[in-house]
Amino acid sequence: MKRFYYLILILLIGCSESKTDFVVKLNSQDGYGIFMPGNTILWPSQDSIFYRNVPKDIDEYVVRSFMLQPAQYYWNKYLDGSIKKEQFENIAKYYNIDTTKLTNKSVDCEVLFLIGTKANKRVIIVDSDNDEDFGNEKILEYIYPLTNERQKEIDNTLPIISVQYDYFENNQLMTKVIKVKPSPYKGSLGITFNTNNEIEKKYFLFASFPEYKKGYIDLNGMGFEIFVSNGFSRVYYASHVSVFITPKSDSLPSELNGDIPYQIGDVFNVKGYDYLIDSVTNWGDKIFIKYLGENTMPVGITEGYYMPKFEAKHLDNSIFELTQHPDKYILLDFWGTWCNPCIKFIPELKKINSEYPHDKFVLVSVAYDSDAKKVSDFIDKENMDWEHLFISQNQADKNSLVEKLKISSYPSTILIDPNGKIIARNLDIEKLKELLNEKINAL
After folding, report:
1. Looking at residue 219, what is its pLDDT?
2. Which end of the chain, N or C, is less packed with Cβ atoms under 10 Å?
3. Angle at 399 between CA 371 and CA 360, to 5 degrees
4. What domains lie within the chain, and their CATH numbers?
């Protein structure tokens, strides 16, 4: 599957006004658009939950809550004595809570969900008007259980409910409305609830907020679109967002096709000038793009961009750098002993390693795995007689090749030319060979 990192921000091309900062207005769109659908788990509550008027024909149920403004929710819990000072301080550190921006008044910023069984069907009730009363709400019914395949088939048809809730911001208490899609289906996700309540253990509940943002910009008669997602697991934006920027076209990028979006803090280059995706407002209604300056050797993670700086080591713990292979094409292969498709790909790698002269080409496999010895033993067993790097799954490293190149699927391949420029990413094996033949024969 080919991945694109849509560095095309052509909206700035050939325009003197491009050497400036931008603020682009974004509008709400229903659904998931070109992004990967997402959701969040609603865990059994550790606190008692007040609710009333559960329909009498529901055989069995549990009630769970979801915080739509975690900072205010925990601040209220601290003020009413539900959580202790030390506990709140740990929570505040985790959520980066600034209490000066919150109110001491109670804010009803959580929504209640009931999930249970009625006549052999799963049922979900969402407290859509946020009055803790399930008696005036629609009962959503779901066939249960279903195979994983069937769950995927019907996902787009699951009901969506408009939910009202309170939110405190800028010294104002406001009432907002968000669309939520609840689901009782966990697919192949292997999770268990750490609770002594046997009824709670039976029910898995997920909530998705199917809304993304979209903006337009027109420069010199050319139109462009900006798409922003917050992952669909919360109602606010500001951080942990994904961004696509692309010319208006019938062919759009898509995470479902493996295209890689930008993140906040990413730098992209347009015609020799660098720009930074600086931030998005809390409600995703604006995105801020900063002009950084001229750069004729842009760094990126897809075709046409130069490799970012990284840290990497061989299996023997010696340092690996691209400069160790001057005047050569370097093929990086990302794999793991846990990855069946990676193992099936090994025969192809052996052919590539044997077909191209090693004075012009080098194959470097990058094992993303948990045990270096296991990887080493596997390499010896399979006679993988080329260069090998190791990145531990057990230790996060933002400077590693996996993080720097945003590797999220395995196997993945990246072909680098002698100047350190990426010329192919996850290219089909036959097309990769064609490109190698063309480039190496030209040396």
Report:
1. 47
2. N
3. 80
4. 10-37+211-294 (no CATH), 40-69+107-208 (no CATH), 322-442 (3.40.30.10)
Q: How many CB atoms lie within 10 A of CB 233?
A: 14
Distances (CA, A) of 201 to 24, 123, 258, 319: 45, 16, 35, 48
| 364 close to 358: Cβ distance less than 8 angstroms | no
Residue with tokens 């030319």: 417
In sequence order, the 6+-apart residues with CB closer than 8 A to the CB of 8 are: 245, 246, 247
Find tokens 């033993």 and name the residue.
Answer: 377
Please check whether residue 296 is in contact with residue 273, taking contact to mean a CB–CB distance below 8 angstroms: no
Nearest of 331, 369, 328 to residue 348 by alpha carbon:
331
Eight-class DSSP state of 22: E
pLDDT at 405: 94
Phi, psi of 337 (to 5 degrees): -65, -20
Q: Give φ, ψ of 92 to 5 degrees.
A: -60, -35
d(CA 441, CA 428): 20
Helix, strand or coil, per DSSP, at residue 440 = helix
pLDDT per position as a tens digit, 180-237 = 999 999 888 887 788 888 899 999 999 999 999 999 876 445 567 999 999 999 999 9
Rounded distance between C-alpha atoms, residue 64 and residue 195, angstroms? 14
- Cβ–Cβ under 8 Å, residues 139 and 55: yes
Per-residue DSSP letter, 409: S
102 pLDDT tier (thresholds 50, 70, 90): very high
**What would the two tokens of residue 112 be?**
């209640």
Tokens matching residue 380: 């010896």
Structure tokens at 379: 């390499």
User: For residues 292 and 288, what is the distance between their CA atoms, to the nearest angstrom?
Assistant: 13
Residue 162's contacts (CB-CB under 8 Å, 6 or more residues apart) are 128, 177, 178, 179, 180
DSSP assigned state of 371: -
Q: 340 to each of 335, 336, 343, 429, how far by Cα in Å?
A: 9, 8, 5, 17
Contact 35, 257 (CB under 8 A): no
pLDDT tens for 302-311 read: 888 999 989 8
